[in-house]
Amino acid sequence: MILSPEILAILILDFIFIFFAIIAFILSIKIFLGWDANSTTKKQYRLEKQSFLTAIIIKYIFIVKVPLFLFFIFTLDKMSNVIIGAMCAAGVVDATPYGIYLFIFKIMNLYFFGYWLVIHNEDIKYETQPYTRLKFGIFIGIFFLFIVELILEWLMFSSINIDKMVSCCGTLYSSSSTSSISIIFHINKTLLLSIFYGNFLFIYIFYLLRKKYLFVIANILFILTAISSLIVFFGTYIYELPTHHCPFCFLQSDYYYVGYLIYTLLFIGTFYGIITGFVEKSKGNKIENYKISVIFNFLYVILVSLYPIIFYIKNGVWL
Amino acid sequence: MIELKNITKIYGINTNNKVIALEDINLKIKEGELVVLRGASGSGKSTILSLIAALSKPSSGEVIVDNKRISKLQDNFASIYRRDNIGFVFQKYNLISTLSVKENIILPLVPLNLDVKDVEDKLSVVTKRFNIAHKENTIVRNLSGGEQQRVAIARANINNPKIILADEPTANLDEKLSLNFIDILKELKKLNKTIIIATHDPLFFGLDFVDRELKIHNGKIIS
Q: Do A34 and A92 lie in a common domain?
């Protein structure tokens, strides 16, 4: 295991997370099974106090998890300097069989923790706390996903072998047979871009029509179409290289860390988009979740679209 | 209307040193009523006040104020309930000693974001009513005990609450100042406030304008 200060920090935080998440998990089970909002028994008053404590634990795990995810990417990027063949975080993710699953779990859990927080915030806006059982029931499920994530993280860091050569992102994100996502490079670019912009157009139409479930589906699809088009098309304009498709390299300083902005816009836009399925408008909030989603998704579309447009204006050709 | 239903309050419930402060208390207090809770230290008087003020929750049972289940409120709603309904005069006044009289009194108005004029109007009403207007800009630590108490009463009334709770309000005062406080109580009673006083000061016993005296002993109402 490489014990760099960054990895040590992540692992120490993981242990703290496990400790508190287990407390929250046990209390969540007690609350889920015993909650009766109308009851005035000792048990119910104790559960009310425990629900307050549990909510704080879960909230702070999430609050630390968000910047920690960015720090995780940063750490992978930094590790690529010591792993032979790796040019960026992509090579490190591919260095062990656990990397890609860890990545998927991390992103998934960010969305789940985020949704938990939304339900919690709605719950505490009402005197009757209508979602208390629901939110702790949901956390019981999230806990298992979270533990899988932490185990994968431990497995990944412990099985990285710095002497073993890994593939660089140029190979991993290409149409070559060694690439696990080579299939998306066989899609016609014009078709892919049409799907991407069409998907955004549908998001906007469903926003105007206030069709919440269609809006949610369009947002889930948008995560896929946005990332596919980013890898196949827009990324090449960020690098100004027709052969480079890595979705990690633009997180580096060479590209002014623009990747963090790109992914943050996409995360916020789709996150609020999917929220509308649960909560169209938070009590007391002036802005609808629909609007936040459309604004951030729009900013994402503008940002990634600017790269090819500027490239064309500067050079007079498309890549 | 304030109603305490089957209230039990145990401190340190999960420890070896648990203390039963209140045991299966039932109590109804009508709007505009002035009730004196009598009893020795540790009998449970202050606990009753803190439950009515939603400063703490019972171990079991419930507190209902104007049909609202106070004891079931989360902290954020309990704060709103206190802000809108309760004026609390603490035994040690709980004033901020480094702030002026005026600043202490208007403190409960801060979360309301009122206009300066509204704040000044409310301040003027209570400082005149409780005879502390001439000390408005004095730092609280430079006041006498009786003056500090008047500031505490003014602060408790600045929001014009329906319910005034006073916990051993005369514990730190001499007899003359205690009698002054009793005069203030008469004034508040005329304003149709519901007033609950927890005290073991004999000056409060047998007063003609007090509606009820309740004797608390070992966490139970005995008369």
A: yes
Kindly state whether residue A271 falls inside one of the protein's structural domains. Answer: yes
Reference B75, options A52, A56, A54; nearest CA is A52
Helix, coil or strand: residue B136? coil
Chain B residues with beta carbon closer than 8 angstroms to that of A39: none
- Report the residue of chain B nearest A124, measured CA to CA: B74
Which of A45, A127, A129 is opposite residue B58, by nearest beta carbon? A45
Domain that holds residue A62: 5-159
For residues A155 and A9, membership in a common domain is answered with yes
What's the CA gap between A89 and A84, in Å, rounded?
Answer: 12
Contact flag B6-A45 (C-beta cutoff 8 Å): no
* pLDDT tens, per residue, chain A with 319 residues: 778 888 999 999 999 999 999 999 999 999 999 999 889 999 999 999 999 999 999 999 999 988 898 899 888 888 888 888 777 777 888 888 888 899 889 989 998 998 899 889 888 888 888 899 999 999 999 999 999 999 999 999 898 887 877 777 777 777 665 656 677 778 888 999 999 999 999 999 999 988 889 999 999 999 999 999 999 899 999 999 888 888 888 888 888 889 989 999 999 999 999 888 777 666 666 667 889 999 999 999 999 999 999 999 999 888 7
Q: Report CA-CA distances (Å) from A210 to A205, A216, B21.
A: 8, 11, 55
C-alpha separations of B8 from B23, B39, B60 in Å: 4, 17, 5
Contacts of B75 in chain A (CB under 8 A): 52
What's the rounded Cα separation, in Å, for the pair A28 and A35? 10
A116 with A36, same domain: the answer is yes
How many C-beta neighbours within 10 Å does residue B220 have? 15
Distance CA A224, CA A236 (A): 18
How far the first Cα of chain A sits from its last, in Å, is 41
Domain membership of residue A165 (yes or no) is no
A40 contacts B72? CB cut-off 8 A: yes
The separation between CA A185 and the C-alpha centre of its own chain, rounded to angstroms, equals 23
Which candidate from A37, A45, A124 shows the least CB-CB separation from B57?
A45
**A24 and A127 share one domain:** yes
Question: Complex ipTM, two decimals?
Answer: 0.83
* Integer angstrom CA distances of residue A233 from A185, A243, A256: 9, 10, 19
Q: Nearest chain B Cα to A52, which residue?
A: B74
Distance (Å, whole) CA B45 – CA B27: 13
A141 and A39 housed in the same domain: yes
Angle, vertex CA A108, rays to CA A178 and CA A53, nearest 5? 150
Q: CA-CA distance, A211 to A59, in Å (whole number)?
A: 30
